[in-house]
Prior knowledge:
Blueprint: E1 3-4, E2 9-15, H1 19-28, E3 34-36, E4 41-46, E5 61-66, E6 69-72, E7 75-76, E8 84-85, H2 86-89, H3 98-102, E9 109-114, E10 133-138, E11 154-157, H4 158-166, H5 179-188, E12 205-210, E13 214-215, E14 223-226, H6 227-244, E15 248-252, E16 254-255, E17 278-283, E18 293-297, E19 303-310, E20 315-321, E21 327-333, E22 350-356, E23 361-368, E24 378-384, E25 389-399, E26 404-408, E27 420-421, E28 440-446, E29 451-452, E30 470-473, E31 477-480, E32 486-490, H7 492-513, H8 523-533, H9 554-564
Parallel strand pairs: 1-13, 8-31, 9-12, 9-15, 10-12, 15-17, 17-28, 28-30
Antiparallel strand pairs: 2-4, 2-5, 3-4, 6-14, 6-16, 7-32, 10-11, 13-14, 18-26, 19-25, 19-27, 20-24, 20-26, 21-25, 22-23, 23-24, 28-29, 31-32
Helix pairs in contact: 5-7, 7-9, 8-9
Amino acid sequence: MPILNSEIKSYNIIYTGRRETLIESLVANNITQYIFLNDLLFVIYVESDFNENIFENIRQIVGWESSYSMSSLINITDNLSQGVPVLQAADMSNMSNNLYNRLQGEGIVVAIIDSGIDYLNEDFINEDGSSKILYLWDQESNYGSPPDNMLFGSEFNREQLNEAISNNNSDLSKDEIGTGTMAAGIVVSEGKGNSNYRGIAPKAELIVIKLRSYVSLFNEGKINYKNTDFLVAISYIIQKFKEINRPIILNFTVGLTSGRDISQTLLNTFSELYQSGFILVTGAGNQGNTDIHYSGNVSNGESIDINFQVGDDKNLTILIDGYKVDRFDAAVISPFGEISTTVTYSPNFNLYTGKFGLEDVRYSISYSYPWISTASMQISINLENVYSGIWALRITGSDVINGDFNAYLPNKNLISQNTRFIDSDSNSTITRYGLLREAITVGTYNTKSNTMWIGSSKGPAKVDDFILDIVAPGVDIISNYLDNTFNTGTGTGISSSVVCAVIALLIEFIISETDFYRLSIYSEPIKTYLMLGASQKLIYTYPNTSYGYGILNYQNTLQRISENL
């Protein structure tokens, strides 16, 4: 069952010093639910009334942030009659060259962190009756035991899954949403249910994590995930990477809020992500036409008011990012003209709380500088019991050199369709983890109309800034769904799954052609090959904010690799 968001609160924390000493400090402050992810990062889980000022008492803590919401990058579209099989969409249906035909992803592992998987689906079962899944960790299940060093959920290895398959036992774990099953089908489906819907890399294997779900955080009934649980899942995959000693492609089909400038991130604390044999692929985000981003510029002492409309949400979070060393002041203005406390920079972390008297809306505003994920300023504004109407953000230049700032609402599939910035900017809407330099960031191309999908997130407007890498098919793609059925999906999580499957074939080829493959299987070279092999339309200049370096082209990319081995 989904976990109510009111029952749990979690934090990502950067630490230093001896772990044993830190643990003593945590316990002394009644923090007993913690998971160490690496030598720099750990997460804690506490009650909803936890007092964040406690962090000031623990000297080993050098930076922290409250958990952020994540949402699926896959939209189930229920459009099977107009759907496109993934091999057709990727132009891989009629490969005549034996080189293309013999590559099926054998020996490669794809890791999916999403809504779980229908492990009894025949397309995820090998010819000998064994599961394609090496490990399945259901973070919500109480059926078995958690993985080593974890606090929650149940872990199942291949032997346990094989036994469940032989007994037709579906009780271990369930995918109630279908996005995880769909992502897996794009990669490894055997095509038993329908040979036309075979996956791109049917001999690849899987590690699957079903994330804990939280309901009704912003809008009633809508499901979101937490990046604390997501980072714990990454730690788990890294542990398996060390154990199995095989190439792993990590597929991000869920995304954080959009962002513009990630100079550093919590992902950087996982050094294993940047080793040979570990490839990171992420959807760019589905916020290209959702009005969740505002960009502006103010000078010292200047103030501007940014109008945003609130629909039927019960809570809302707005993030304001500064640029480099700039600092801003911020306040919120209600539809009735009441203004919140104006938050300003101070050397110590401050949490401002208050209430709009006429509307009974509570607010909390935190000011982080430098924020641990960007080293720039971030202001987080949380509105509780918010109501419909036109609100405003007041941004004032306090100590600015550049003056640029960006404001973001949560991902659109978590909030009301009517909640939006009045004067929005569709640029700079890539999910924050997609801004990581080492990640292969993928937008969505519509093969049905031979155009970009309107919802695909865009890079910054300035070409010299970060731009997404490539685009791939991702509109109404047919894949496996719940209860041995098929369905269609749209979004950059579909596109990232397509690219993961293609990369599995590319890595298999590299391994087969050289004894020194470990020197070649880094995200950066793979990304470069994908860019070099991408198809480009003559009417555009590349790279650009929508297409990146072009449209995924498997044959061209494989040819470029073969020329350089």
